[in-house]
Amino acid sequence: MDLVAACRAFLAVSGQGSFTAGAAVARIQQSVASRRVAALEEHLGGRVFARSSRTVRLTPFGRDMLPWARRVVDVADAMALDAARALLRPIRLAVPAVCGTLALARLAAAGRDEQVHLDLLAAGPVERAELVRAEQVGAALLAVAPDGAVWQVPVGVAAAADPGRPAVHVESLRAGRAARTARRRRIWVQPEDDVAHVRDELTRLGAAVGLQPAQVATGASLVAAVSEVLTSNDLLACSPAQAEELGLHWRPIGELDLRRGYDLAVGSREDASAVGQLLEAEIGRCLGVRQGQGRGRS
Prior knowledge:
Order of helices and strands: HHHEEHEHEHEEEHEHEHEEHH
Pfam families: HTH_1
CATH class of the largest domain: Alpha Beta
Domain HTH lysR-type: 1-59
Largest sheet: 9 strands, mixed
Mean pLDDT: 90
Number of helices: 11
Protein name: LysR family transcriptional regulator
GO molecular function, one term: DNA-binding transcription factor activity
CATH architecture of the largest domain: 3-Layer(aba) Sandwich
CATH topology of the largest domain: D-Maltodextrin-Binding Protein, domain 2
Organism: Catellatospora citrea
Shape: rod-shaped
């Protein structure tokens, strides 16, 4: 027996003094109202109505049960309302600060299509890890080593001027004898890539091909790093999508297949674990994964 439905029928009939009128108020057929009230009486073990050919009236037992029926219906309605609110309560997702505004807007829109409401918080890699560890967000896209990552994003170098070749070899940044006194070109590492699996790989490669330590530099911010690139012949380590957004010319690194790796970590919201499955493709686009590229583990 559906106790809530039976109590609704009981309240509707008692309020109208008629099964016909009560059924109309409850928007059910009269026969359905009769069956539900009969089931309630059987469940409670007593008659709630004294029936006549034209009307029904509450029995003493029915009068005693009426407040309880109203309480059952009120609690069910309150529960349904809270459930609806809970479904609408957004999941706070910490995302890389390098994600573009349009990409984030498309991610949020895709979430709504899947009945997932996202509150997106842009942050750096260290801050994202801290936020999810402290359960201040429902989930976070963490920077991880590309091996086994859910999302992989290629990282190359970008310049203000077209390099004129299909790839940039880091070895070409090594100063020759005639240019030892000139300013050496640098590769700028932005805060999003100030993680071991990106920064250390670039540093090791620079040392291996003979660059000076200062030629692989970490910018205080993305804005600071890009400003250096725009006013010099320096290079920015970044993804193709990011270079396109910044109006820079991107090329892969000739000596190194460098990638960012991302994984979804769940914090304070159990339902946040569904975000990665429902929105995997859109999250990838937001991170800079191009179609047919960058897919990690299945």
